[in-house]
Amino acid sequence: MKGLKKIPIQIYLEPEQDKLVGLLSEARGKSKAAIIRACISKYIDSLPLENDPALKIMNLGESEETDIAERHDDYLISFEK
């Protein structure tokens, strides 16, 4: 996710959550936002693979190409041109 533009979002934390995020922020020398982003990333990374929404798009298309697995990067780049 690094390199992507950050999108502003407003959330409401429970007072105890805010206190803990603040303590982590001070202890690690990072902003509260960075701590919250790290928590979200860790949660997403912990989800079971079968719940990955990216897997639901597999096998949706058809192609006459027989080497897609080997040359997928080449095919993806061709769509950017």
Topology, number of strands: 0
Give the fraction of residues assigned to helices: 40-55%
Structural class call reads mainly alpha
Overall geometry comes to elongated
Q: What is the number of helices?
A: 3
For the terminal residues, how far apart are their CA atoms?
23 Å
**SSE topology string:** HHH
Q: What amount of the residues lies in strands?
A: under 5%
Rg measurement, Å: 20 Å
Biggest sheet details: none
Low-confidence stretches: none
**What's the average pLDDT?**
83
Please supply descriptive tags for the structure shown above:
mainly alpha; 81 residues; elongated; 52% helix
If you had to describe this structure to a student in words, what would you say it looks like?
With 81 residues, this protein is mostly helical. Helix content is 52%, strand content 0%. The chain has 3 helices and no strands. The longest helix has 15 residues, at 32-46. The protein is elongated, with a radius of gyration of 20 Å. It starts with 14 loop residues before the first helix and ends with a helix.
